[in-house]
Specification:
Elements (H helix, E strand, L loop, with lengths): L1 H10 L9 H18 L9 E4 L2 E3 L1 H19 L2 H4 L4 H20 L3 H10 L1 H11 L5 H30 L14 H14 L8 H8 L2 H25 L7 H19 L5 H21 L3 H32 L10 H4 L1 H14 L6 H16 L3 H24 L14 H16 L11 H8 L3
Antiparallel strand pairs: 1-2
Family: Belongs to the complex I subunit 4 family.
Main location: mitochondrion
Subcellular location: Mitochondrion membrane
């Protein structure tokens, strides 16, 4: 693996040439398959140490593959950006993003993870400022920066405190350390903002609306998963404090339910998809806070499924925006009459978004619902309304955008083959991973740890 990482560092210099884009893209696909070959699923039941504080288990393995897949999708849709004069600047940001994401998931030390976790903010902030759609991108970037920095310093101080208590920050050693509620909250505060939890979510819709399509794809596909990954690691290290989880679980579920109602009020397609990310992450967060084995497994599946599905949804919104020059649902109507094939892709991805089989979303939500109902049986009433309104806003998005009276335009360009190719590459792995839902077998090391406290 270190050989792959070092070769990636040197080959990234080829990004500076315009004609090397496809070669670099193929190289990243090659890296993805090399990871699958050298580290197959059945070899990841425990942590595989690579070098010093770098390692990989099944949880980081899945998110590394997700990151490389979404980065490849970004490179495919960067054709218009590549024609600009600041092409090298864009490629340098992609270099930074790839390296920070890879080392974040490879880090088996909390301090190293903290450095790369916070460093991912830099390329994302510059992407929004450099390629945002309108002048409000400055405000959106400022919101994202301030919210992230708000949780950054408390996390750093708590890591110092944790080191004083345990004399180590290694992730793969689980510590049973009793903390008070304030220290517990400060330890997970940065991850709640990154996910985001409902009460700390205001930066996410603004960032999505103002970001370019590549920014929205990487933000929804991978950046939000950094918060879930960090929360997963930290909760396992603070299992003696699981009595505090009931407050965060209840708040995240109520916030997710309220977000489904907010989705029904949206007329901006991108804003609606952004709030749907908050809905899915709220449910994933509740599964983690339940501290049940099924909750952790469902959260892992949800991060993979939502990363691919939401990236495809944001790309679909951008395809409509390039033809109608608007994201408003009042204008994007009757698209099924003009682009029936594109309407089929809308149907496929929205059906995955509402957990229609055989998508991975279905497996993840079954596990999460099982964990939440096992944790508190009366939760089933809230979950019924939660799932019902989740389906309603998805059908609302599809029916209004695809049906109705089409507004005639003098000229509208056709959907090109590359756009269908990107959309299919979002849909296929989302349904192919359904057949690999037996990955629960390799979570046995997490299962043993969690059962010690339940």
């Amino acid at each position: 693996m270190m050989m792959i990482m070092m070769s990636m560092l040197f080959l990234l210099n080829m990004f500076n040439k315009f004609y090397m884009q496809m070669i670099i893209q193929n190289i990243f696909f090659f890296y993805l398959f090399m990871i699958l070959i050298n580290y197959p699923l059945n070899s990841l039941s425990l942590v595989n140490m690579l070098y010093l504080n770098l390692g990989m288990d099944i949880y980081s393995w899945g998110l590394i593959l997700l990151s490389m897949w979404i980065i490849n999708m970004m490179l495919m849709v960067s054709e218009k950006i590549l024609s600009k004069i600041n092409m090298n600047y864009y490629f340098n940001l992609i270099k930074m993003m790839i390296l920070f994401l890879m080392f974040s998931f490879y880090s088996m030390n909390l301090f190293n993870f903290y450095i790369f976790f916070e460093s991912t903010l830099i390329p994302m902030f510059l992407l929004i400022l450099g390629w945002g759609y309108q002048i409000d991108r400055i405000q959106a970037g400022l919101y994202m920066m301030l919210y992230t920095l708000l949780g950054s310093l408390p996390l750093l101080l708590m890591l110092m405190n944790w080191y004083n208590l345990n004399f180590s920050l290694d992730i793969y050693l689980n510590y049973y350390c009793k903390l008070n509620f304030m220290n517990y909250f400060l330890m997970i505060f940065a991850f709640l903002i990154k996910l985001p939890m409902y009460f700390f979510h205001l930066w996410l819709p603004k960032a999505h609306v103002e970001a370019p399509v590549i920014g929205s794809m990487i933000l929804a596909g991978v950046m939000l998963k950094l918060g879930g990954y960090g929360l997963f690691r930290v909760l396992l290290m603070m299992m003696m404090n699981f009595s505090y989880n009931k407050y965060f679980l209840l708040l995240s579920m109520l916030g997710g339910f309220y977000s489904t109602l907010i989705c029904l009020m949206q007329v901006d397609m991108k804003m609606l998809v952004a709030y749907s990310s908050i809905v899915h992450m709220s449910m994933m967060m509740s599964g983690l806070f339940s501290m049940y084995y099924m909750g952790f497994l469902g959260g892992f599946y949800m991060m993979l499924a939502h990363g691919i599905c939401s990236s495809g949804m944001f790309y679909l919104v951008n395809v409509n925006y390039e033809r109608m020059m608007s994201r408003s649902l009042y204008i994007n109507k009757g698209m099924i009459n003009i682009f029936p094939s594109l309407s089929l892709m809308w149907f496929l991805l929205i059906s995955c978004n509402i957990s229609f089989p055989p998508s991975l979303n279905l497996i993840s939500e079954i596990y999460l619902i099982t964990a939440l109902v096992s944790w508190f049986k009366q939760f089933s009433i809230l979950l019924i309304f939660f799932m019902f309104f989740s389906v309603i806003y998805s059908l609302y998005l599809y029916s209004i955008s695809q049906h109705g009276k089409f507004i005639k335009l003098n000229y509208m360009k056709n959907v090109i083959m590359l756009e269908y190719y990107v959309l299919i590459l979002h849909w296929l792995p989302l349904n192919y991973l359904f057949m690999y839902s037996y990955m629960y077998i390799y979570f046995n090391n997490f299962k043993i740890l969690i059962f010690k406290i339940n």
